[in-house]
Amino acid sequence: MWPAKLPGEGAALLDACTAMCDVMKKLGIAVDGGKDSLSMAARVGDDTVKAPGTLVISVYAGCPDITATVTPDLKCPHSRGSLLYIDLSCGKHRLGGSSLAHCYGQLGNTSPDLDDPDMFVSAFNLTQGLIKDRKLVSGHDISDGGMITCLLEMSFAGNCGLDIDISCDSDVPFIDLLFAEELGFVFEVSKNNEQEILGAFSAVNIPCFFIGHSTKDTKKKSSVLFPEVDHQVCVGIPPIKVAVLREEGSNSDREMAALLHMAGFEVWDVNMQDMCSGKITLDQFRGVVFVGGFSYGDVCGSAKENVSSGVGQGVFLDHNDSGRFECRFVTVRVQSSPSIMFRGMEGTVFGMWSAHGEGKMIFKTPDIQNDVLRMNLAPVRYVDDSGNPTIVYPFNPNGSPDGIAALCSEDGRHLAIMPHPERCFLPWQCPWMPFGMKEKLDVSPWYKMFQNAFDWCVEQV
Q1: Which residues form the FGAR-AT PurM N-terminal-like domain (predicted)?
Q2: Distance between CA 221 and CA 387 in Å, rounded?
Q3: Cis omega before residue 394 (within 30°)?
Q4: Do residues 331 and 395 lie in contact, with contact meaning Cβ atoms separated by under 8 Å?
Q5: Which of 201, 26, 24, 21 is nearest to 118 (CA)?
Q6: 8 Å CB contact between 91 and 171
Q7: Domains of the chain (ranges plus CATH)?
Q8: Of 19, 32, 163, 400, which sees the most CB atoms within 10 A?
Q9: 9: three-class secondary structure by DSSP
């Protein structure tokens, strides 16, 4: 975006495009399209107000392994991580255009720049290799607020402390070193890998400095409770068949099938047309799952009066209180209930994907709602950061009363749940979990729901 029609701005635009092309050639990146807005100026009275010239570059690339990722939150491996600063600024610490300058009502004279594209390529390739080899625990760039902002954001996100000694043998003024928004990273690594990584960057002539430690904050305790998850193989029993019903507009059927198969079931993909034509009947199945998704309307009726016994006839779904589709990883708590799928999971507090536009549970009368709570027929509740049921947005994404996220029948055999456990039964499907927990777990707590269902079916054989 550029006010290219004003005097001197056309030449500035040409300089920016030339610099971009030169850098992209060295990076090995091609431009395959573009969109410009070259009239970024307006008359206000007798004055001409122009927008600053802005060049926005979006890139995309293949991702061979979606689990090879690094998040910014500090994780304190072995209770004390090592923090490394990778400096790609060629020793410069320019404050022009920085957040610090803005706080003082200034612009500055010289802004950060990519002075050495070859160093940037070497750093990128080396970093990718370290991520692939699981050598980096956490990482964050310093280009938005400077090194001090980067460190504080990493600390706050991980609820960890910092023990920092930033000197780097530099004569640069301390405030420049802390707030310059140059190219660079801060990595958290295990103490065991610290020297190896320092040596790897040194070998390709990239400045890398040890700047301190992350420290474990023991003042707060985790509110996540995990049941034991066992992997069992049952021999000598007939296959336990379960049907996953789908129709136009439904989704998550593949995730559900994968989860059920992993739990030991023989999974059948059943389309509503198969049933309407009489090709398949449900009497051969031990379980039936209606997956979510109503992009063509709720063809299966799975969002209306879908709980057995007397409760279901008085419950329906309404639009979220926010008035929009909500897709977020919400925290839920498993309550005491007769549900067979939640046996032994009472007290578990963990995240679950929520994705719906009409998820607010409405009870026809207050008596029905009271009966649900009195009879413990709400096995899952949306909770706040303290683990308490809540109706407060965004902890509760739809406004369901008493934070109710699921309902079950009195005999525990039927469950209707609004969020999606099938979308987060593997650790990599969860957007975040503590580092040590993610390294140790093969499955998330929600796998046990379906393991419980399988075990119950085995008991009934």
Answers
A1: 1-61
A2: 12
A3: yes
A4: yes
A5: 26
A6: no
A7: 1-61 (no CATH), 77-216 (3.90.650.10), 241-460 (3.40.50.880)
A8: 400
A9: helix
Query: Considering only CA atoms, which of 311, 310, 292, 309 is closest in space to residue 301?
Result: 292
The token pair at 447 is 């796998």
In the structure encoding, which two tokens stand for residue 76, read together? 């304190």
Burial of 169 (0-12, 13-18, 19+ CB in 10 A): exposed
CB atoms within 10 A of CB 238: 8
Backbone phi, psi, residue 3, to 5°: -85, 65
Rg (CA), the chain: 28
φ/ψ of 87, rounded to 5, equals -100, 110
Contacts of residue 265, defined as CB under 8 A and 6 or more positions apart, other chains included, come to 240, 241, 242, 287, 450, 454
Task: Walk across the sheet containing 160-164 and list its strands.
Answer: 136-141, 184-189, 80-87, 208-216, 160-164
Cα 88 from chain centre = 28
Q: How many CB atoms lie within 10 A of CB 384?
A: 15
Tokens of residue 38, six digits = 């070259």
pLDDT tens track, the chain, 461 positions? 889 888 999 899 899 889 988 998 988 888 777 777 888 888 898 888 988 888 888 888 888 888 888 999 999 998 899 999 999 999 899 999 999 999 889 988 899 999 999 999 999 999 999 999 999 999 999 999 999 999 999 999 998 999 998 875 557 788 898 999 999 999 999 999 999 999 999 999 999 999 999 998 534 333 333 444 444 445 557 899 999 998 887 889 999 999 999 999 999 999 988 999 999 999 999 999 998 765 555 555 554 433 333 334 578 899 999 999 999 999 999 999 999 999 999 999 999 999 999 999 999 999 999 999 999 999 999 999 999 999 999 999 999 999 999 999 999 999 999 999 999 999 999 998 877 787 788 899 999 999 999 999 999 87
**CB 367 within 8 Å of CB 421:** no
Distance CA(76)–CA(67), nearest Å, equals 20
- Nearest partner of 86 among 132, 23, 56, 130, judged by Cα: 130
Helix (H) or strand (E) holding 23: helix 9-27
Name the pTM for this structure. Answer: 0.67
Using alpha carbons, list the distances in angstroms from residue 54 to 95, 112, 200, 316: 18, 15, 36, 50
Residue 114 CA neighbour count, 13 Å, CB half:
15
**C-alpha separations of 8 from 3, 5, 12, 36, 434 in Å:** 10, 8, 6, 18, 53
Of the candidates 286, 303, 231, 220, the residue with the CA atom closest to the CA atom of residue 263: 231
